Amino acid sequence: MLALNNVSAGYGSFQALFGVSLEIKAGETVAVIGPNGAGKTTLLRAISRLIDPSAGEMLMEGKLLNRVPQHELVAHGIAHVPENRRLFPRLTVEENLRMGAFLPAARAKFAQRLQQVYALFPRMQERRRQPAATLSGGEQQMCAIGRALMSGPKLLLLDEPSAGLAPVMVQTIFEVVRTMSAEGYTVLIVEQNVRQVLTIAHRGYLLVTGRIKSSGTSAELLATDEIKQAYLGM
Amino acid sequence: MFDVFLLEAVLNGVLFGGILALLALGLNLIFGVIDVVWICYAELIMIGMYAVYYLHAVYALPLWLAFTACIILVSLLGAALHQFVIRPVLSAEPINQLLVTGGVLFLLQGTATLAFGVEFKNLGVQLPTLRVGELYLSTTRLIAFVVALLGMIGMYLFLTRTYLGTAIRAISQDRSVMPLMGVNPRRIFLLTSALGGALAGLSACLLVLQYDIHPAIGLSFGPVVFLVCVLGGLGNIIGGFVAAFLFAQFVSVGGYFFHLEWGYVLAFLFFVAAMFWRPRGLFGGRL
After folding, report:
1. Ramachandran angles phi, psi of A192, nearest 5°
2. Which of A49, A88, A103 is the closest to B182 by Cβ?
3. Helices and strands (H and E) in chain A: how many
4. What DSSP letter does each residue of chain B carry, written as one string?
């Protein structure tokens, strides 16, 4: 579904990604892991069209993404859940979800998708009239994921969903991603929390200083020394 | 001892407050969403008033048609103002943005002076005074109040019940996340500017019924509108609404107890005092 071929990207004279290639097939949950400063955020920003890649191609279902404007990404079926949730604080939960369905095609299916999101996140239904700022961190994460789902995306990009959450909430969020994975959603998840994310992802890529150091199934990756090296400098 | 003149002053204050609230709404909408102050806001209204005058009093178009044309015209002016004047300086320092709209203020004033001359013009629409018991109320003011109220209710419904309205509220809370939902921020800003212009156009229609027109009238109510917005919290729509009625009461009742002009003096004193107490406005911050 999504393919990156030799993508390089950076900020001005500072290059953060060097010839990164990865792919995600429909129905897979793929993790991108790596230490701080590895370029994970840059990778997502490139896919999410916040920055232009300096080289390489990004393809979504065969279509070239490299020059697609940011706001047209959703129309291509990619929904990005940004780091730190970025909900609209003074809008209610339901209004945040409604914003997710802004695209005309999504508006037509609003009621139906809303029910699906509420089924996935019952707590969102309870709190649907509350301003998003009053939710706990974990609930905000659920709301943010729900908002992305409202557009009926083919690919979901999750940017460090466990960041800043209490350990109990981290568990909950990973359970949510596991459920979504089981329901057939295609997910690209960028995470610091290596062990947890590899238990719910099918495959993973290890990104270190802008290059893919290794890749494989979750089981394979967990067993490698490289993971230990990358994170603990062993 | 029941004082009917005091009641009249209070009621007139309410009617005046309604118009002021509508004026404040447009300004707060633009600042709350786009984070730019239209210094030339009152001048846009002035142009709208001239439009109604010429269409109705000079070219004898029916009033409702002149009003509609006015609202459309000022709405387009608002969009044009954003597209050509404000967009280039959106990421510049706020002072540049103020100066640029200040430039438009003088541009509009000068153009109006050249085009329309400096004699005061009046629409010539006279409506009878309404008498309720011993109360005398201006029908024009009453109608203006009702229309302003309807306009504000309409805006409220639009902002809360439609996708575009929700997007406008959303973008004022987090601008950079909007594209992730398929929203092009530039289009929302343009739409908001058109909406702000439409509100200014509506205000023009209501004001032209009550006041004479002159190229410099923007200076007579412009500062008051800013003051009201700041009093309520610049960018805060609810704040502006409340502040408008509060200010209008000071003007009206103060003008009743003391001399007419003292009404404004008292209102300004109230404003200064409120700023000491709450520098960010009675309700603070943005919407």
Report:
1. -90, -30
2. A103
3. 10, 10
4. ---HHHHHHHHHHHHHHHHHHHHHHHHHHHHHHH----TTHHHHHHHHHHHHIIIIIIT---HHHHHHHHHHHHHHHHHHIIIIIIGGGTTS-HHHHHHHHHHHHHHHHHHHHHHH-SS-B------PEEEETTEEEEHHHHHHHHHHHHHHHHHHHHHHHSHHHHHHHHHTT-STTGGGGT--HHHHHHHHHHHHHHHHHHHHHHHHHHS-B-TTTHHHHHHHHHHHHHHH-TT-HHHHHHHHHHHHHHHHHHHHHS-HHHHHHHHHHHHHHHHHH-TT-SS-S--
- Name the minimum distance, in Å, from the CA of B286 to any CA of chain A: 11
Selecting from A71, A80, A147 the residue whose C-beta is nearest the C-beta of B183 gives A71
Q: State the Cα angle at A209 between A203 and A212, rounded to 5°.
A: 30
B85 touches chain A (CB under 8 A): no
B4-277 sits in which CATH class? Answer: mainly alpha
Residues of chain A contacting residue B233, judged by C-beta atoms under 8 Å apart: none
Flag if A70 and B166 touch (Cβ within 8 Å): no
Answer for the pair A93, A143: CB distance below 8 angstroms, yes or no. Answer: yes
> Which residue in the set A86, A95, A102 is minimally distant from B182, CB to CB?
A102
Which ipTM was obtained for this model? Answer: 0.87
Closest-CA residue of B relative to A97 is B181
What chain B residue is nearest to A151 in terms of C-alpha separation?
B181
Residue A222 to residue B271: CA distance in whole angstroms: 66
Which residues 174-193 of B are in CB contact (within 8 Å) with A?
Answer: 174, 177-185
Q: Return per-residue pLDDT of chain B as tens, 287 residues.
A: 567 888 888 988 999 999 999 999 999 999 999 988 899 999 999 999 999 999 998 898 998 999 999 999 999 999 999 999 999 998 888 899 889 999 999 999 999 999 999 999 988 887 888 888 878 888 888 888 999 999 989 999 999 999 999 999 999 999 889 999 999 999 999 999 999 999 999 999 999 998 999 999 999 999 999 999 999 998 888 899 999 999 999 999 988 888 878 888 999 999 999 999 988 888 876 65
The verdict on a CB contact (< 8 Å) between B163 and A69 is no
Look up residue A1 and give its two tokens: 């579904």
Residue B20 · residue B151 · CB < 8 Å: no
Residue of A nearest to B183 (CA): A71
